[in-house]
């Protein structure tokens, strides 16, 4: 990054920076030339997943015996998210795969399941998705209607899921479902649905206002017979597993927003120094300098917070409340920054050919997915006032 964030990062070691350089080269060669077409198509080509797997950018924390990197250091995940975000390559669903799905498989899968799924998870042959949200249930996870009923050695799954990242391309989908409505919070489980199972269908690619290249879909399950061998973890503990893994998911989103703040501010600084009005650069006006000073301060504060929470997470000390703080504050800050940076661009900010327009559109959903700002505040507030 440039000089927008006035903070010397100490989070990374030399080996992390080598990894960053390697990933930047991957993006330059295999993603940058294609991403605009993926935006038009509203989906990325599966080939980029295979290339990412070949170069070691998938499953960094998975055991080496399955083809993973064998290093659970979350800083590698953060680098992939930061560089993907800085390039504006919002179509890549690697963060969902590495940060959100990987913990479920690595912690909960049996030895037999790991043998079946993890090698292709790491090569990119298996693209993964996590299906929690439904048309009538978003933040209220206990309000889901998708249900699985035991039938011999199988579970018969019925229901639908909405806003599922990687939904069209996914080969493995971890589905959060009811398995016994009479048991309250212990009545939910995780089933892994695989591509080709009868009754598993993908709906349309959803027409979003931003993140066009990101594969986001609705999924439906009609009498899908899921073998017991595809139950992930223990029956009845699905909600517990979700609560266990959500902090990393929310930290990942905060990493994305902090990086987006920096890259958006950098491109805006470049623009206001080049664009002239009334015989001088836009950036030289006092109002512009004041706005930029405020945004640089907020971006720096977010960077310091997120980096510290990455350290805590690596040490196993990040709490659900801290992850919620990072998620809501960083995403709301990014949305404010994108809006104010667009204003500094004037009419050109409304043109899609300028990076700020994409940043503005992509920013809006950040405060919603992974748990809305309001839910994040509720999580923190309950801790403060039980």
Uncertain spans, ≥5 residues at pLDDT below 50?
none
Order of helices and strands: HHHHHHEEEEEEEEHEEHHHH
Instruction: State Rg.
Output: 21 Å
What is the 3D form?
globular
Class based on secondary structure composition and strand pairing: alpha+beta
Share in helix = 40-55%
Q: Average pLDDT across residues? A: 95
* Most strands sheet: 4 strands, mixed
Task: Report the portion of residues in β strands.
Answer: 15-25%
Distance between the termini: 41 Å
How many strands? 10
User: What's the helix count?
Assistant: 11
As laid out across the biggest beta sheet, the strand order is 1-4-5-8
In short:
This protein is α+β, with helices and mostly antiparallel strands and 386 residues long. 48% of the residues lie in helices and 15% in strands.
Structure characterization notes:
The protein contains 11 helices and 10 strands. Strand 2 (147-151) and strand 3 (154-165) form a beta hairpin. The model has no long low-confidence stretch (mean pLDDT 95). It has helices at 14-31, 35-41, 47-54, 74-86, 94-108, 111-123, 238-274, 286-314, 320-345, 355-363, 373-384; strands at 128-131, 147-151, 154-165, 172-178, 188-194, 200-205, 216-227, 231-232, 276-277, 280-281. It has 386 residues and is α+β, with helices and mostly antiparallel strands. The two termini are 41 Å apart. The strands form 3 sheets. The protein has a 4-stranded mixed sheet with strand order 1-4-5-8, covered by helices on one side. A 4-stranded antiparallel sheet has the order 2-3-7-6, with no helix packed on it.
């Amino acid at each position: 990054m440039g000089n927008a964030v006035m903070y010397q990062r100490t989070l990374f070691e030399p080996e992390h920076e080598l990894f960053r350089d390697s990933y930047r080269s991957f993006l330059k060669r295999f993603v940058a030339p294609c991403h605009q077409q993926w935006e038009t198509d509203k989906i990325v080509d599966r080939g980029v997943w295979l290339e990412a797997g070949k170069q070691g950018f998938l499953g960094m924390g998975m055991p080496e015996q399955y083809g993973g990197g064998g290093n659970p250091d979350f800083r590698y995940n953060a680098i992939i998210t930061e560089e993907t975000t800085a390039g504006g390559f919002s179509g890549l669903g690697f963060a969902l795969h590495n940060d959100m799905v990987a913990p479920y498989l690595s912690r909960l899968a049996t030895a037999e399941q790991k043998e079946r799924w993890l090698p292709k998870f790491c090569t990119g042959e298996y693209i993964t998705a996590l299906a929690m949200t439904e048309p009538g249930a978003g933040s209220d996870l206990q309000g889901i209607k998708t249900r699985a009923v035991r039938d011999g050695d199988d579970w018969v799954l019925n229901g639908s899921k909405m806003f599922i990242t990687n939904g069209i391309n996914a080969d493995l989908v971890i589905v959060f479902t009811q398995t016994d409505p009479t048991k309250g919070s212990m009545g939910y489980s995780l089933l892994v649905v695989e591509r080709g199972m009868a009754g598993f269908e993908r709906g349309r690619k959803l027409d979003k206002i931003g993140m066009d290249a990101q594969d986001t879909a609705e999924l439906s399950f009609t009498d899908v017979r899921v073998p017991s061998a595809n139950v992930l973890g223990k029956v009845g503990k699905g909600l517990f597993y979700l609560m266990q893994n959500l902090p990393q998911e929310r930290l990942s989103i905060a990493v994305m927003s902090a990086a987006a703040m920096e890259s958006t501010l950098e491109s805006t600084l470049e623009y206001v120094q080049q664009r002239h009005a009334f015989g001088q650069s836009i950036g030289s006006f006092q109002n512009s300098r004041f706005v930029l000073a405020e945004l640089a301060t907020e971006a720096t504060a977010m960077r310091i917070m997120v980096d510290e929470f990455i350290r805590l997470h690596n040490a196993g000390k990040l709490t659900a409340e801290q992850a919620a703080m990072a998620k809501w504050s960083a995403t709301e800050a990014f949305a404010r920054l994108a809006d104010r940076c667009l204003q500094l661009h004037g009419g050109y900010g409304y043109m899609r050919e300028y990076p700020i327009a994409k940043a503005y559109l992509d920013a809006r959903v950040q405060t919603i997915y992974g748990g809305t700002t309001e839910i994040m505040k509720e999580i923190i507030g309950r801790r403060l006032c039980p």
